[in-house]
C-alpha cells in the first residue's frame, strides 16, 4: 500500500506541474477588457503567439539592418498581446477594469519599474517580470480619461534591443541610446 | 499372558487389539508432499489504481489544455476598428482618414502546435505576413508608450525623484 501511495503522490505532482508552470507564465489574461470594445471609438487587439512570431520572423530580411534588429528582438519571445481602447467620451471604463489587470501584476515576480501620472497623459505604469535575474516579461498599462491600453510581452524582453528599435518602422525615437551616450561622455 | 505387545509388539497379540489396529490403521499418518492451493486469486487492485491515476491525469491535462486554449484570445488578426463619430457622419466629404476605416474581421486561427516549416506555403506566408503586421503594430504601440514614459521620466523633477528612489 505504501508503494501505491508513493506512486499516486508522484502522479499527482506530475499532474500539478503544468499548473505550476502556467502560474509562472508572464501572460496576462486580458479578456476581461473585451466588453469595452462595444463602447470604444477605436480598438486595437493584437495577439501574436510564439508560433506566429516564428512564422513572422521568417519574413524579416536578414540583409536589412533594421529588420535584422527586430528579428533579434522577437526571436526569444513567446508572445505579444495588446489591447487598446480609445473612447469618444470620458468615463467609459471603470476602475474595476484596471484592477483586474493590476491584480495580475501584483503576483510574485512582477515588479513595477515606472509609474508616471500626469493630467495630460493619464497614468502610465511599466512592469517587468523577473525569473531570477532574467527578465521574463513586460507589461505596460496606460490609462487616461478616454483611453485604456495594455501591452503584454511574454518572454525574455531585451530592453536594449527594444531601445534600438526606436525610429524604425514608424517606431518613435525613445532617446534611450542618446541618453546612454551622453552619460558616457 | 504377557502384555509386551502393547509396548514393543513382541509376544502374542490380543485379538481385540489386533482388530482395533486394523480399524484405526486406516487413519495412520501416511507421508506425502504438501499440496498448496493451485488457483490463488491474484489482486489487481494496485494495477487498477495506477491505471486510474494515469487516466485521471490524462483527462485533467486534456481539460486544462482545452480551458487554456479557450481562455487565450483566439483572434490573431490585428483589429483596428474605427467607429466614425456622429460629426464625421454628417460631413463625410471633409474626412481625411488617418487610419483606413475598415472593419477587419478577426480570423480565428486555431493554435496549431506544429513546427514551422522551413519553406512557407502560400497560405502560411499570408498568415506570416498578417502576423508580421500585427507584430509591428504591437511594437509600435509598445515603444510609443515607453517613449511617453521616457519623456515624462526625464523631466528634471522626475530625474531627481528617481535618483532618490535609487538611493
Task: Give a brief outline of the structure.
The complex is a heterodimer of chains A (185) and B (167). Chain A is an alpha+beta fold and 185 residues long.
Q: How would you characterize this protein structure?
A:
- The complex is a heterodimer of chains A (185) and B (167).
- With 185 residues, chain A is of the alpha+beta class.
- Chain A has one domain (26-178).
- Chain A contains six helices and six strands.
- In chain A, strands 1-2-6-5-4-3 form a six-stranded antiparallel beta sheet.
- Chain A is globular.
- Chain B is mainly alpha-helical.
- Helices cover 54% and strands 2% of the residues of chain B.
- Chain B contains six helices and one strand, in the order αααβααα.
- Chain B has helices at 4-8, 15-25, 45-71, 86-90, 122-153, 156-166, and one strand spanning 79-82.
- At the A-B interface, helix 1, strand 1, helix 2, helix 3 and strand 2 of A face helix 3, strand 1 and helix 5 of B.
- Strand 1 (42-49) of chain A pairs antiparallel with strand 1 (79-82) of chain B, so a sheet runs across the interface.
- How would a crystallographer describe the biggest sheet of chain A? 6 strands, antiparallel
Give the ordered list of helices and strands of chain A.
HEHHEHEEEEHH
Structural class of chain A: alpha+beta
The ordered string of helix (H) and strand (E) elements of chain B is HHHEHHH
Q: Identify low-pLDDT runs of chain B.
A: 87-117, 159-167
Overall domain count of chain A: 1
The overall average pLDDT of chain B, rounded, is: 70
**How many individual helices of chain B?**
6
Q: Estimate what percentage of residues of chain A fall within beta strands.
A: 25-35%
- Identify the biggest protein-protein contact and residues per side: A-B, 67 and 61 residues
State which percent range the strand residues of chain B make up: under 5%
Through-space gap between termini of chain B? 125 Å
Number of helices of chain A: 6
Q: What helical percentage do the residues of chain B reach?
A: 40-55%
Amino acid at each position: 500500500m505504501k508503494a501505491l501511495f508513493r506512486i499516486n503522490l508522484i502522479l499527482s505532482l506530475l499532474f500539478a506541474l503544468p499548473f505550476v508552470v502556467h502560474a509562472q507564465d508572464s501572460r496576462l489574461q486580458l479578456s476581461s477588457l473585451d466588453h469595452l470594445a462595444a463602447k470604444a471609438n477605436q480598438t486595437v487587439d493584437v495577439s501574436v503567439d510564439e508560433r506566429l512570431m516564428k512564422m513572422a520572423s521568417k519574413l524579416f530580411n536578414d540583409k536589412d539592418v533594421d529588420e535584422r534588429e527586430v528579428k533579434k528582438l522577437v526571436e526569444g519571445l513567446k508572445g505579444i498581446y495588446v489591447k487598446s481602447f480609445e473612447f469618444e467620451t470620458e468615463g467609459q471604463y471603470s476602475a474595476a477594469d484596471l484592477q483586474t489587470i493590476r491584480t495580475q501584476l501584483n503576483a510574485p515576480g512582477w515588479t513595477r519599474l515606472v509609474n508616471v501620472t500626469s493630467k495630460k497623459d493619464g497614468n502610465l505604469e511599466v512592469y517587468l517580470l523577473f525569473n531570477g535575474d532574467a527578465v521574463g516579461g513586460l507589461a505596460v498599462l496606460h490609462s487616461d480619461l478616454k483611453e485604456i491600453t495594455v501591452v503584454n510581452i511574454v518572454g525574455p524582453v531585451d530592453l536594449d534591443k527594444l531601445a534600438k528599435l526606436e525610429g524604425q518602422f514608424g517606431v518613435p525615437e525613445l532617446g534611450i541610446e542618446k541618453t546612454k551616450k551622453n552619460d558616457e561622455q | 499372558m504377557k502384555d509386551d505387545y502393547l509396548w514393543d509388539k513382541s509376544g502374542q497379540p490380543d485379538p481385540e487389539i489386533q482388530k482395533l489396529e486394523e480399524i484405526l490403521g486406516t487413519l495412520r499418518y501416511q507421508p506425502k508432499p504438501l499440496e498448496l492451493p493451485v488457483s490463488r486469486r491474484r489482486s489487481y487492485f494496485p494495477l487498477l489504481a495506477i491505471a486510474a491515476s494515469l487516466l485521471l491525469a490524462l483527462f485533467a491535462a486534456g481539460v486544462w489544455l482545452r480551458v487554456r486554449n479557450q481562455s487565450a484570445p483566439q483572434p490573431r488578426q490585428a483589429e483596428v476598428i474605427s467607429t466614425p463619430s456622429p460629426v464625421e457622419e454628417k460631413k463625410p466629404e471633409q474626412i481625411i482618414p488617418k487610419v483606413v476605416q475598415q472593419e477587419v474581421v478577426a480570423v480565428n486561427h486555431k493554435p496549431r502546435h506544429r513546427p514551422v516549416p522551413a519553406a512557407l506555403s502560400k497560405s502560411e506566408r499570408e498568415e506570416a505576413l498578417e502576423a508580421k503586421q500585427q507584430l509591428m503594430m504591437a511594437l509600435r504601440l509598445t515603444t510609443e508608450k515607453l517613449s511617453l514614459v521616457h519623456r515624462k521620466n526625464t523631466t528634471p523633477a522626475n530625474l531627481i525623484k528617481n535618483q532618490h528612489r535609487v538611493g
